[in-house]
Write a structure and sequence with these properties.
single chain, 337 residues, alpha/beta, TIM Barrel, eight-stranded parallel β-barrel, two-stranded antiparallel sheet, 10 helices, 14 strands, globular
Amino acid sequence: MHRRKIPHTPVELTDLGFGASVIGNLYRVTPADDATAAVNTAWDAGIRYFDTAPHYGLGLSERRLGAALRDRPREEYVISSKVGRLLVPNEHPRGVDTEGFVVRDDLRRQWDFSRDGVLRSIEDTLERTGLDRLDIVYLHDPDDHWHQAADEAMPTLAELRDQGVIAAIGAGMNQSALLARFLRETAADVVMLAGRYTLLDQSALDDVLPAAQAHGKSVVAVGVFNSGLLSQDRPAEGMKYDYQDAPTDLVARAQAIAQVCEAHGTTLPAAAIAFPHTHPSIINVTLGMRTAKQVGRNVQLHDQRVPDALWDELRTQGLIRSDVLAGRDGGRDAQCR
């Protein structure tokens, strides 16, 4: 796979990344052997960027990912985790986590973007993963915590970066406007943008992507299937969009995009993966991968030919914004994997 560098850092990311939220038992149990097989299959396919967080399965994702990577050459891969949700003892457990992960709730999440919280969170992550360092650390969903995140957490991460403890810093969110502020107003090197630069939502063109270009910073795109609506060749009623049932008009638009994809010899999910790479500031697309089979499918979709003419026709038909860049004008040729 191609690699692209986060400017002003030593960090290089492969085009495709492994999102480890699902191996933290997101929505359903993932057997440990399946999780390990998924990581191993990703490695064999050339994926060298792996993302996790304490939030994912109350630490289960970090433990599983660290164990699967522990015997791999440390200099050959990039791992990121997140801060902002400390895991603390749960004084009133009910048996199962209530935030989407099928795990015991002996721990609970506690919002904390303070300096001490950041340092403790990183130390806890290193202990859970068993690794000696993290390459990228993101602030995790600081939507309601701008002041503490910008004034305490980000300077703490910048200090650790300047000391060489971590290599790059940033923030990850489901919105683009506040991520643009992190790029413009803080020491962030990279942001993780969820769902806001996809075939169905190009709102990041109004804020975070211009900010990244103006300041020479990078964007990692996640949520490119918008919770599922873009994940199948033929979208249908009842599929999810941004964690909710997809509105009828969006299902119709996804179906129209799928027809154009088919006419150009490709598929909707392959185009959904290729699309973010049309922008020069987006250096990676990371997908959640639960099993070896899912990894194989995602890699196959990533490798599928997506012609630049597709973007031209989608713009002409008004199915994507007119200011979307073409593949060769963007980060890389969408056909060149």
